[in-house]
Amino acid sequence: MTTLAGSPGQKGSADGLGSEARFDHPFALTADASGNLFVVEASNHTIRKITPGGLVTTLAGLAGATGSNDGAGSAARFNSPRGIAVGAAGNVYVSDSSNHTIRMITPAGEVTTLAGVAGVRGTVDATSSAARFSYPGPLSAGAGGNLYVAESFAGETCRIRTITPGGTVTTLAGQVGVCGSVDGTGSSARLSGVTGLAVSPTGTAYFLEVGYVTALRAMAADTTVTTMFPASGPSYPSQNDGAGAAAQFLSPGAAAFHLGEVWVTDGMKTRRVTPGGVVRSDQQVDAVRGVAFDSAGTMYLTIGCGVQKGPSTLAGAFPAVLPEQCGSIDGAGTAARFSRAVGLAVNNAGTVYVADNGNSTIRAITPAGDVTTLAGLAGNPGSSDGAGSTARFSVPAGLVVDGSGDVYVADSGNHTIRRVTPAGVVTTFAGVAATPGSSDGTGSAARFSEPYGLTIDGSGNLFVSELGNSTIRRITPAGEVTTIGGLAPFVGRADGVGAAARFSSPKGIAADAAGTLYVVDSGNYAVRQGFLGSAIAPTITTQPASQSVAAGQTVQFTVAASGTPQPGYRWQVQGFVSGESWLDLPNFAPFSGVSTPTLTLAPASPQETGFRFRCVITNLAGTATSEAATLTVSSLTLIPFVLTFGATKAGAFGDLITVTPAQTVSVSYNAPSVPVWTATVDQPWLQVFNGSGTGAGHFVVRVINPANVIGSSTSLSGSVTVTAVNVGLTATIAIALRVQLAGTSLAPVGVFDTPVNNATIQGSIAVTGWALDDVGVERVEIWRDRAAGETTPVYTGSGPGDGKIFIANALFVSGARPDVERLFRNEPQANRAGWGYLMLTWGLWNLGNGPFTLYAFAYDANGHYTTVGTKTVTANNAGAIKPFGALDTPTYGQTVTGAFWNYGWALTPNPNAVDTRTCAITNGNVFMAVDSGALTPVIYGDLRTDIAASFHGFSNGTNAGGAWLLDSTALSDGVHQIGWYVVDSCGRADGIGSRFFTVLNGSSLTAADAGTRRRGLAIQEGGRTQSDPAVQTDGAHGIQRVAGDAPATTVTARTTGGEWRAVPPSAAGVHVVAVGQSERVEVHLPPADGVTYTGAQIVNGETRALPLGSSLDAEQGIFYWQPAAGFLGGFDLAFTRTDGGRVRVRVVVGPSMRLAIDTPADGVVSQQTVVVAGWAIDLASTDGSGIDTVHVWAYPTAGGDPVFLGVASIGDARPDVAAIYGQQFERSSFSLVAPPLALGTYDIVVYPHRAATNAFDGAQVVRVTVVP
After folding, report:
1. 1197-1206 — which CB contacts under 8 Å span 24+ positions?
2. 92 near 104, Cβ under 8 Å?
3. How remote is the C-alpha of 564 from its chain's centroid?
């Protein structure tokens, strides 16, 4: 190997031949077809050219001068260029990193900006100056003149993008804000730390990732990313919070100890580490490098070219986004300028000292923000001792202040430790300038190699972290240097004593009062702990005790332990997620003190009853884990928590004209004994019915206006309080009343959700949606257009049904739409906004064959109506293969007592082109279930001449009837669901309908009993019943179950007739089960000897009964549900075991895809560039939004080929989406700046791609017209 140009150890900017030339931090190079090399110099901010003969010239830029000007040769300016490539035409392309742009240089040296805007960071894909970059890095030229650029900045931007010759920028792989090392296609791949990039002639991009592991990866032309080397290994570092090895760091740097925790800078975050090893992110900050605290506990940060005090800028530019915001200017506040502020320290008087790394100076900032240069001269690095500006430093890093006010500096470039007096007099405390080494000794006899971090203990000892030696050194007040951790020149990651330990480029270092050192081991992406002295493992002296409190009270758990050094505490909880997992508690409400001996929970909630808490106590010598303490929270729970009523009046002295109907409130409890409760109101316009009870129950609230007590008021507040004196519990529900003048109320609003538009339907389908009104929705009617050739008469008259055929009134179902309730919880009847109707398509014209257009109209009590939606579907019962039918009794909402007959009918399709078999239904294969519980055969084969007449020629047509005598006294009072399920002789199966009914027997069973079903008949594949001798019988109800049928160790699920499948938990511990509308599902929870389950639904943080129509076999741990028409979306369920374990299940009913296009809206687009943006999620996802890419197409309505607009950027935060669907779905946005479209009208179609199924699903369309 020979040196082509430059001289080792000699930096500069001189042009010349061979060793005459000088460089300063050459960062990347490339070659052209003639063998010329082109070099980017990050520190000189120039582009250099080297001929094959070694002649070096400056092609563009001016050494030492930053900026962003386009121009020729030295008139152009760059700012820390990082990547370079040569195109086929000989043009040189540069990623101008700190300007956030891509530049082009012609062979003549003319510089122009190809894409991005100087000084403006961003992540937008677009064309030329509309595109945005964030510190673009490695660059490579590919076929067709396209450029490839990698962005890997501090965990913020981790992706590879392409730039066309015309400047159009598109993301190929990775995502904004989501970094890692995961193979995948497009945005599903995860990248981080890309340091090299090369593109082959075939279009495959090879790139190198350097970090916790070094990986060579490849991105194929179709954007599929694979890891070539290593094939496996530790995951790439990220910024995961957690405890111990579960926590990860991305770019850890400085450290400070404050209030019992180590504060660490990590890329674009500050993070906190407890002595027990729990890591949590504190705040998002742009390019933070240093951290310190003053005596009052105020935090200071060095960020870019400025210093932040608390949440405000103290001095300099924060954040520095333009080159001109950096420099070296003394002055007040933001008038001052720094260049790469790094280390900082604060003295007792509040003076802040800053290591101005880029200027090689030490700066001082008064508490008022006045900045002066204490020592050194900007732009003049060196090693001279002296006073003020006569002294010299070279790349100073860490700082610390001792008790006398002297400042110690880790003078990294000089390999020395310097001391600066408050007057600015500089001396070399230890080491010799420009003489790196690792020798211990006193003063100048010692040697260092790139010292970086500094801290000081109470005795005045300094502790130094060294990048070059990967060691930890101690310096006494007398200047004696000793290596106390690591062994130069060895690098690694090993715990041990003294020289047996290993580090990798340690940076930050901090010490606590007990003498424990905390080291930011940056090359190992870890925070390490060390102690000077003999360590003794923790011993627990007092165990935490179980607690029983009433809801709303504060509860504390306390542990005591001894150990040396003082141990750290980490409280954990069991019960949040599935199985027996113990989770570290977060240090935010309702928890506090999670890293102290006393854990506080305030206020205690009924949801936390049964939770178990323990403390893990750790120091360097070992770990001790406390016994578990159980929390019991007694409570009365009212659901819903809030009720809203609306009303209209004729005037201040008039009576109420319309008012929201009476609303029902349920009462449940968790208490040592059964509560005897009474409900009372606090306003004369409120009235309660059934206002007392024992145990679980319900009461009804309505609004009245005796003697016109409402008067002219338009907004009133009240409450209902439920008191159970015998158990000492109370609960209150807030009531709101909004009153409007007659004629000013609004029409209903709502959405028609299913069936999906243009769907093909068969058999029975769920017609569903939601509707709300400012007073109350009276009804939702389902209508349809008359089909072609149909003779059914249409309705003629007023209203929206004129000229259409009425189908049915939909049923409103309480709790059917938690997503709508979450969004509109303060609207009247929000908890029953969902409506549904199970439509038997066989009853449509032509036995349900052909296209049909459906309408949903919502009416309120004030005479308003709204078309909430229209759906066009195609019925195809000619190809149907599943049984169908309907229930006749009970009628919807019927109240029953004692025993009653449940009647219905069932048929199965005749042979057709899809299934040519002749099938029939036999007695014993039509089943009934109450609350979706275990199946019981009904008596089938009754004469039904009405069915035979309507369905002439069907098997069983004459004897299609079935019946079951149901004893309602075995059920609790309240609402229940009954449904039928049919299996024909060919094994074809389906549910044929369900009805809600109300039991009113004065039963002694509680509502909680209603959630626990009796055992029932198990169904085999093909519909045959089991006859195993192990079948157990519950003689009281004639219901059977196969012993041992429940899966053994994990959560499993099946739809009836389907295969059992394991349902593993998501990263958040939630088991997600997807089920079709009106499809029956069984979920088997992990069984354990002697353990039973209780179940609840969680809505808006409220704990409620399980959804209507579902049930739980408490002993066997089986949850049954066949969601009735109206249920749609995600339903979060929590199942708690008597041993404290908890299983969380999300049941997703119906289509799981949700997508909204925010822009463009339907209508005219005034410019040819269309911005397409919105959000998309998959409710069935267990990780993130579930959407790994989004494609956008434009279809000309006048005909012609569709236009592919591009792949949208995804993953930005949408707090509004998270508020409705949960935090998991926050990063759900998509956006695309589409290329210009020709004039005309287009259907813009957004296609989200589901990661779980690897398919595009749930597309939506918006029509736009592009005009000049």
Report:
1. 1197/1240, 1197/1241, 1197/1242, 1197/1243, 1197/1263, 1198/1240, 1198/1241, 1203/1237, 1203/1242, 1205/1170, 1205/1172, 1205/1232, 1205/1234, 1205/1235, 1205/1244, 1206/125, 1206/170, 1206/1232, 1206/1234, 1206/1235
2. yes
3. 40
Cβ–Cβ < 8 Å for 328, 338: yes
Which domain, by its residues, includes 181? 66-229
Q: How confident is the model at residue 1034 (pLDDT cuts 50, 70, 90)?
A: very low
Residue with tokens 């741990």: 1117
| Average pLDDT across the chain, whole number | 87
Contact predicate 813/832, CB 8 Å: yes
Per-residue pLDDT band at 181 (split at 50, 70, 90): confident
Structure-block tokens of residue 924: 């014993």
Q: Which helix (H) or strand (E) holds 845?
A: helix 845-848
The pair of structure tokens assigned to 261 is 């925790």
Domain boundary among 1119, 1150, 1181: 1150
The dihedral region occupied by 776, where left means phi > 0, alpha psi between -120 and 50, and beta the remainder, is left
If one compares 188 and 376, the residue with the highest pLDDT of the two is: 376
What is 1213-1262 written as a DSSP string? --HHHHHHH-GGGSS-EEEEEPPPPPSEEEEEEEEEEETTTTEE---EEE
Calpha distance 217→279 (Å, rounded): 30
380 plus 447 within the same structural domain: no
Q: Are 68 and 118 in contact (CB under 8 A)?
A: yes
Q: List, for residues 436-451, the tens digit of each pLDDT value.
A: 899 999 999 999 999 9
Q: Per the structure, how many domains does the chain have?
A: 9
Per-residue pLDDT of 265-274, as tens digits, reads 987 788 998 8
Report the candidate in 855, 830, 816 with the shortest Cα–Cα distance to residue 994.
Answer: 816
Arithmetic mean of pLDDT, 1010-1022: 27
Average pLDDT over residues 493-509: 90
Residue 189: CB atoms within 10 A of its CB come to 26
Q: Answer whether residue 134 is part of any domain.
A: yes
Are residues 70 and 113 in contact, defined by beta-carbon separation less than 8 angstroms? yes
In angstroms, what CA-CA distances link 777 with 501, 559, 774? 72, 55, 8
Position of tokens 């398919």?
A: 1255
Residue 238 lies in a domain: no
How many C-beta atoms surround the C-beta of residue 311 within 10 A? 7
- Check which CATH number belongs to the domain holding 1103 and give it: 2.60.40.10
Q: What is the DSSP letter of 23?
A: B
pLDDT tens for each residue of 93-115: 999 988 889 999 999 899 999 99
The pTM assigned to this predicted structure is 0.60
Task: List Cβ neighbours of 129 (8 Å cut-off, separation of 6 or more).
Answer: 113, 115, 116, 117
Contacts of 757 (CB under 8 A, 6+ apart): 871, 872, 873
Strands (DSSP E) found in 1051-1128: 1052-1055, 1061-1062, 1070-1075, 1081-1084, 1093-1099, 1102-1104, 1110-1113, 1118-1121
pLDDT digits (tens, 9 = 90+) for 217-237: 889 888 998 887 654 444 445
Decide if 382 is inside a domain.
Answer: yes
